[in-house]
Amino acid sequence: MTDDPPSRIVEVVAGVIRDARGRVLLTRRTEGRDLAGLWEFPGGKREPGESPEAALARELHEELGITVEIGAALINVPQAYPDKRLRLDVRVISDWHGPARGREGQALAWVPPQKLASYAMPPADRPVVGALLQPDRYLVTPLPDDDRSWLAGLDRALAAGIRRIHLRAPGSDPGRWSVLIGRAARRCRKVGVQAMVNGDIELAREHGTGLHLRASQLPTLAAAATRPVAAGVALAASCHTLDDLRAAEAIGCDFAVVGTIKPTPSHPGEAGIGWDGFARLREQVSLPLYAIGGLGPDDLAEARSHGAQGIAAIRGLWPADTRLSADRLS
Fold first, then answer.
1. Shortest CA distance to 14 belongs to which of 4, 2, 29, 30?
2. Residue 18 DSSP class
3. Is 38 buried (19+), middle (13-18) or exposed (0-12) by CB count in 10 A?
């Protein structure tokens, strides 16, 4: 299933502004505007011939009365609306001066980061919250050659800074795999890492992990409007089509993985959808999305420039000295 998005493109810039307490500034869209009443990251339209940095500095002064120093790019979100296609270019504001106030009559809110997700936002702003709060790398585990080396590889990945892991080993012996998941889940909990079990709802419940759904599981769950885990338990899905993504969104997934972006040995004969294909899917939903397929940490900036939360990978994120196991993934 594909939609034909409108052709009109609107370039918008927005800033992530923090106060001395680390709270993030949101502004509320005023009556008479599209999506009135929703909360968003402050900014506005980029004029023809205007650089993103100049546009953001101008908009924040006009809207809030502050002068700013523009910092790093955070994410660029393509989003299709009924009458336009938005491109939301979000930058971190590294410094700002002057009392922030709603010069256009808009309400302001300084929000603790952990509460951002509770604010009703336009679809384009929701992935920004993901980019701020969620990990930018999602490790997918390879098939275990032997338990000891697999767990050693996992330990090295955790030590290297991985903070979200998809525990996946198709075709493994169920009893052995359950034991390995238990050991992996304990390691992850000890260092505050989110572990997600692939596909098996009961196994995820047994070991107290999140659940990562296969694309094949989504139609039945969406038709029944069923979220297979309790509120507060992380839920994700692998998605390949717009139908997959809409089903994942309908059942309340917290994020999804989309691909493959590039050809990979684990998917021989598949050309990959490329970054343009990813962006076309990205603009139809508001879920945080990881891109997968032939990617590694060097692709993070490219991923963010097309609206991805970050990258998911086996070979690109599994420790190099144990990467041979990943090459055996089926």
1. 29
2. B
3. middle
Residue pLDDT, tens place only, 250-259: 999 999 999 9
Residue 148, class by beta-carbon neighbours within 10 Å (0-12 exposed, 13-18 middle, 19+ buried)? Answer: exposed
Give the helix, strand, coil percentages of the chain, each rounded to 5: 35, 25, 40
Three-class secondary structure of residue 40 per DSSP: strand
pLDDT computed for residue 4 by the predictor: 62
pLDDT at 270 over 90: no
Task: Return all residues near 218 (Cβ < 8 A) that are at least 6 apart.
Answer: 237, 239, 244, 247, 248, 251
267: its two tokens: 């998917």
The pLDDT, as a whole number, for residue 263 is: 78
pLDDT tens digit sequence for 133-147 = 999 999 999 999 899
Joined tokens for residue 70 = 């523009």
Report the candidate in 126, 114, 118 with the shortest Cα–Cα distance to residue 41. 126
Whether residue 260 is preceded by a cis peptide bond, meaning omega within 30 degrees of 0, is yes
Q: What is the pTM of this model?
A: 0.92
- Rounded-to-integer distance, Cα 138 and Cα 310, Å: 8
Q: From CA 158, how far away is CA 191, in angstroms rounded?
A: 8
Residues 149-172: tens digit of each pLDDT: 999 999 999 999 999 999 999 889
CA distance 85 to 194: 34
How many CB atoms are closer than 10 A to CB 2? Answer: 10
Q: How far is CA 254 from CA 34, 280, 285, 326, in A?
A: 26, 20, 12, 26
E-only strand ranges, 169-254: 194-198, 210-213, 235-239
Task: Return the closest-CA partner of residue 39 out of 26, 24, 52, 49.
Answer: 26
Residue 22 pLDDT > 60: yes
CA angle 312, 142, 295 (to 5 degrees): 30
The alpha carbons of the chain give a radius of gyration, in whole angstroms, of 21
